[in-house]
Design a protein that fits this description.
The chain has helices at residues 16-46, 52-79, 88-94, 107-132, 137-161, and strands at 47-48, 105-106. The chain has 170 residues and is mostly helical. It has a single domain, classed as Ferritin, core subunit, four-helix bundle (Ferritin, Up-down Bundle). It is elongated and about 55 Å long. 32% of the residues are buried. It is built from 5 helices and 2 strands; from the N terminus they run αβααβαα.
Length: 170
């Protein structure tokens, strides 16, 4: 369900073809971040066990920052002449990964699974950066900035599941 470029305009100095390519990449990142913010909130509601409160409280700021990232990407899509679609059906239809499968569970179970979610989101952000470098430096810069925050969030998660010798326990 790619709406891609629909307007007759784009950012000045950018071709419609490059705008369309950038929009396609940004749509993928927007869907991933919409899914991530919902997953983070799901974990926030369903995490239990030792260190519950620390993890519970760690996740809400991540949700807020990821929500802002999503908004920034949606506005960039519109700036380039596209239509950002963030409905639940569009998220499910366009995502290329499995749904988060952990329900009510211990901190270590959720954070192990969340670490794997961040692996995918962050790796895909890096691929988007590579593709955008030849298409749109403004969008590239935006995704680079987001990746810095996403990698820090993953570090926060990993700190909970890391052993003293640096190995991940989950």
């Amino acid at each position: 369900m790619s709406t891609n470029k629909v307007a007759e305009f784009t950012a000045p100095g950018m071709s419609n073809d490059k705008a369309s390519d950038a929009i396609s990449i940004l749509e993928n990142r927007m869907v991933a971040l919409l899914d991530l913010q919902l997953t983070l909130k799901h974990i926030h509601w369903n995490v239990v066990g030792p260190n519950f409160i620390g993890v519970h409280e760690m996740l809400d700021p991540q949700v807020e920052v990821v929500r802002e990232m999503t908004d920034t990407i949606a506005e960039r899509i519109a700036t380039l002449g596209g239509v950002p679609v963030g409905t639940p059906a569009a998220i499910v239809e366009r995502r290329t990964w499995d749904d988060y499968g952990v329900g009510k569970a211990l901190v270590s179970d959720h954070l192990g699974a969340l670490n794997r979610v961040y692996d995918g989101v962050n790796a895909d952000h890096r691929q988007a950066i590579e593709k955008l470098s030849d298409i749109d430096p403004v969008s590239e810069d935006m995704i680079v900035s987001q990746l810095a925050d996403l990698e820090q969030f993953q570090w926060f998660v990993r700190a909970h599941i890391e052993s003293s010798d640096g190995a991940l326990t989950k």
